[in-house]
Structure formats: structure tokens, C-alpha cells
Protein 1
Amino acid sequence: MSKPKIALVVGSTRAARFADTPVEWIAKIAKSHGDIEVEIVDLRDFPLPFFDEVASSAWVPSQNEVAQRWQKKVAEFDGYIFTAAEYNHGPTAVLKNALDYAAKEWNKKPAGFVGYGGVGGARAVEQLRMHAVELQMAPTKAAVHIVWADFLAVRQGEKKLSDFDHLNQSANGLIEEITWWAKALKIAREADVLNEEAKAA
């Protein structure tokens, strides 16, 4: 079996975003695990409008060209880790919108989260876990929560994320869990394809 391919999705597009810092940090940790492939996927590269299709792409093909390109990119991966900034006790609108612009491409794949902000982005992550379930993803229990004190220390240049042992431990735990689920679900999805081909033969 080929190595599972994991997307590290940058879940904010603001000019002043913090998201690049945790993405680069966890990408380095993820790449040290030799049994997965990792790619950073930046929502800035997919300037999706607010959802304006006649229906979900689960039912009707999307007409928007950026949406079509986004769906093809999402389909390339066997699992996802999203950065989750917390805005007003929830995730960023741009990330929720990106989730809504794909459907079957997310199905039967694991989703993990790196939260930051108030209470380590925990409320944003909890909402995203519910969205992931509705999209037939398997959200992991393991997550990274960068609490406000750690966030400020990094933002102000006093420390780097890699200086915090508890965050490194959380990141490795998340990568290990994502990897396990990505491998297991990849095998299951491939078996589904073989079963469908056998039925059609």
C-alpha cells in the first residue's frame, strides 16, 4: 500500500493570520514520521466565494471553477489536519465555507485539528468535529490546543512552538492517530472500490 497522503489545511486567509506558524511547525513534525506524505494546502490558493451553488456538490455538480479545483485537490488526500483559529467561539468562516464546497471528497477519511486562540481553539475544534461527522469524516480524539499564553509568547517572539514540550507531545499524538486512521480507512475505501468493480463485472 502506498503511503497515505495528508493535507495540512491552512484554515485562515487573513493578511495578519497566525496560521502559518502552527502549520510550518506541525508540517516539520509530520514529515519526520516516515509512513505518511504531507502537503500544505492554503485556502488563499482557493478563493472560494461564499457558498452560492444550487445545492451541495453531494447532489449537484458545482459550477464555480474554483470550487471544482478545490474538490479535485481535496480528493487527492487520505486525511486532513486543519488549523482552527477561534473567532467568537467558533471556526473561521472561510474554513467552514471550504468544508461546504466539497462533499464526497471528504468521505471516510480522518480529520484532525490544531486549534489556537481562546481556550486553545477548543470551541472551534468541537464545532469542526461536528461538521466533520456530517461530512462522513472520522475526527480524531487527539488534537493540538495552543492556549492564549503560549499563543502570545510565540506571537511576541519570546518563544517558538517547538519550545513547548506539551505541544510537541500533542502534535506527535495527533500525527500518530491521523496516520493510523488514514491507513485503516485507505484500505477500507480501496476494498469498497474492488467490491463495486466486482458487482459491475
Protein 2
Amino acid sequence: MNWLSPDSKFMQAWGNFTDAIIINLLMLVTGIPIVTIGAALSAGQTASRKMLIGQGHVTRNYFAAFKENFVRATILWIVYLLFGAALVYCWIVLQITPLLIPKIALTILWVIGFEWVFALQARFENPPTRTMVNAYVFGVTYFPATLALVAIDAVYCGLFVYLWFKLPQMLFLLAVLGYGSLLSLHVPIQEYVLRKYTGQPFSTHVQEDTWSVKKHQ
């Protein structure tokens, strides 16, 4: 029965699974005002990273990061929200053939930035404009990692659409698992890329006093 030991791989995995659900629920609740979604995304990034390295308490980590990132993450989110809303309008209303290529290009640009900008906000102390620029630098320079992040999100979105039309009674379960849980898949990919900039290898054995909430770039 060693697999039931608190130090066993099974129990660690189970603990991470339940913590990921908690992070998702915290993101759902704190993102209800819509304008706070950016802060929720950044806080989810930090809480997921610390969860995976076994540092601190997930709820305390989340709210500390939410407070710390609130202003800058909100500015970033408003920019991406307005840009995203404009893209949705263009796809739905502006059904003009010559605009097809620009719409595709701008959509790809939005997706690349979205996959990195809140992770960088959670990890580095920079002005919003520099964080946005860095998001595209990382997104393009490390394009295979970006594709992996997009693939994870695409699977989730595809599953959401499928359940919406085929098994709507399962949508509640998907909402509980949610995007916040996906961050536990995002973080290892992003940290693998960022390790040369943070000077910290992604490890499950990092002590709490050596893994700060922020690291200046």
C-alpha cells in the first residue's frame, strides 16, 4: 500500500490534480467581473508553478499573485480583450474576401501573444508594453513551444464545443476542470523555455525560500 503514502508519486499526482481544480475555481470566481481575468490568468500561472514544485499553499499563493499582478495584468488583459473583440467582430460581420488573410494573420498574432503574455507577467517585473513585446519575442523565437501551448488549448476548446452540442450535461465537469487546470500543462513547457532567463531549472525539489514570486529581468 505504499502508493497511499503521502510521499508516493500517486498521492503527489492526486494532490496536484485537486490543487489544479482549486486554481481553476479560484480563477473562475476572481474572473467574474471580466476585467479581472488578466490578473486571474497571471495568478493562475504563479499558483500552478508553485504547486508543481511543491511550494507553499495553493490558495495563499494564488491571492498573493493576484494582488501583485493586478494592475499590470489588467492593463494587458484590456488590450487583448479589445483586440480580441475587434477580431470577433471582423470574423462575424466583415465577411469580405480581401480581408481574409489580414484576419488570419491578426488572429495568429493574438493567439501567440496570449499564450505568453500572462506567463511573462507572472514571472517577470516589467512594464506592460515590454511584457507584450517579450511575449511575441518568446512566441516566435520558441515557436515549437508556442505550438504545444496552442495545441493544448485547441484540444480543450474542441472538447468544449463537442460537449456543447453532443453532451451538454458534461459541461459542468469540464468547467470544474477548466482552463485553470490546463495551466499545469502550460507551466512545464514555459518554464523549460524560461529556465535560461530565470536561472532556475524547473524542479519538484526547489525550496520555498529560493523560488520567488517574481524575478526581475
Protein 3
Amino acid sequence: MWLGVLFVTTVALHQMSPEFEQHFLRQRSTNIHELSRNPVRVLVASALWIDSGRWLPYILLYTVFHAPVERWLGTARWLAVCALAHVLATLISEGALLKAIRDGMAPHSAVNTLDVGVSYALAGVIAVLTYRIAAPWRYAYLLAVLVVFALPLTEGSTFTDLGHFVSALIGLACYPLTRGRGKAWNPKETLAAPRG
């Protein structure tokens, strides 16, 4: 359903002029200005829009990551991971940006930075999927997740890079939600099944 909502909102964005689109998204952005005015509204609204205007890549991402995690954890636990990653990573990354502004390391205009999208929830879901995979494959997957989300922090990081990394850590911290959710998936057993 979330992917369907993103399709509708993406189509709506394509009908807007570029100037109105920026104004419209900024009012739904989890930037410092909007968070200080109406945090609940923008935390919900920002998860319903894609800033890039490209919906098709999300079909693949939702199929590969969100769908298996929702099937494995159940809708309530999956949503909990999404909400925790989206909300906490937003608050932490915007808090870091606010500190950078106060310390003179970022311009004051950054309080109105455009920040909408579903990538923090996606990063949390990608990370929690670590616990669905059996060892030793789990460790290779975990390493890949950490490299993908930590690498941007080493190369002129932005508050969004920090948010993605924090989201991944939050997803890993959701381990208690994965307990009792069935046997871990072993890629070796899957590959051997057609032959056996």
C-alpha cells in the first residue's frame, strides 16, 4: 500500500511546476524549521513523498527489502522498524545539522533544507534483514550494509548521510523484534534445494 501511495504522490509531483513543487515539498519536509512548528505532521507527511520524482526504482527496493521483511516480521513489527528508523534518524540528523548551524559550520539557511522521502525507513529495513540470514552469510551481509552506509560518512558527509547510517544502526538495534520469527534463511540450503 505504501508503494501505491508513493506512486500517486509521485504522479502528483509531476503535475506541478518546479517552483510550486519545491514550495509544496518544503512544507512537508522534516527540516529544522518545519520540525519546530509541527513535528508529527511533517514526520508523517515526509514519508509519503519522493524528492527525486522517480518511483520505478522503489519497486525493486520494496520487493527486495520491504516485502520480505514485512512477510518475515509481520506488518506491525515491520512498521515499527520503519517508524523507528524514519523518526529517530530524522531527529538525530536534523539535531546534528542544528548543532552545525549553531557552531557556524553550516549556513543558517540550512534550517529550510528539503528533506522528504522514505530512505531512512528503507535503510532500517535493509539493516534488520541481517537477522533473517543464517551465519556465516549474515556477517557478509552485515559488512556490506555497514560499508554501504558508512562509506559516505568518510567522503564529505551530509546530514542525510548521517541519517542513513543512523537508520541502519537503528535497524540493527531492532533485533528484539526479530526474536521468535522463524528459522534464519540459509542461502546454501536454497541453492542446494533444486539439486537435492
Protein 4
Amino acid sequence: MKTIIYMVRHGESPYNEGNERTRGLTPKGKIDIEEVTKLLLGEGIDMIISSPYTRAILSVEGLAEHLKLDIKVFEDLRERHFASYMIENAELMSSIRESFNDPNYTLSGGESNADCQKRAISVLKPILIEHRGKKIAIGTHGLVMTLMMNHFDPAFGLEFLNQLKKPDIYKMQFEDLELEEVTRMWND
């Protein structure tokens, strides 16, 4: 019995608006997400879950409204926490690269790739087991999505993360807990 997970990376989000939890979508992000909704409407999705961050919820909200489904929010699907202090983009990129070389690497007060992956998979695995044969959309973020996919197939690493778009959609087909096929659905 096949279970399908649709990883929906959030649309474009303004970096200067609010904090990590409350940032919304840019006007372009909102338009792109309307296209994401149209693309996923015919897929027969049974369940929608999301990171607690506003931009991820907004990225699956239209789909939930059309399908008359509630969005189940899981705190442990949030994006990776990088550090306890504000970091510049160059330091962030360097840290992310190092994290893929050493999954336990972290900046002060931050979370490692290994820890982020472990907490996200602790949500995803039970969903795959409890909802076998269903189609589930997940509102997510680039790095945590990459780490969840990487758990099932190590080919999903830094190079994969670096080519992701905002938004992006990956359809993952599972047989029980075994990933059988991954298809990119967003062609922007």
C-alpha cells in the first residue's frame, strides 16, 4: 500500500518581517502559492500537516480551505534553529555547508543537522505508519525538508538543498517506511 508525502516548501518570505515564526509571504510568494494550490488540488490529498511557522502554514492554507481539511501543526517540523544570536548570511551559508560535512556541527546555542533531522523524523515516521495508503501534504522549509528526505535517501544533501526554489514541491512515494520514488512537481 503506497503512502504519498507531498513536501511543500514555503513560498518567498520577506526576511525583514517579524521573526522566524511569524514571517509571512511576499506578494510573489502569495501568487506562487495560489499555483501550488491549483497543482495539488487534483492529487486526492487526505491530510495536511505543517511546521508551526506562519510562512509554511500559509503555503498549504489555500489547499486546506479548498479541500475542507484542517491543518495539523507539529512543533517538531519547524525549521532548524541555527544559533542563539543573529548571524549574517555568509556565516549561515558556511554553517550549513559545515553541517552537511559534520551532522553534529552547530553554532553556539544552535541545533545540529542530526538533532533537527531526528526531531522531524519523530513526526514523519509515525504519520507514515498511522496513515498508510494516504496522501499527505506537508508545509515545510528547505533545510528541514532536505533533512527529512535525506533520512530515507542520502542523495538528498547540500547540493539538493542549494537547488531548491521557493516554493517547491516534491512528491515522495513510500511502501511502508521505504522511499520508492521522488518526483519534483514544481517547475518554476
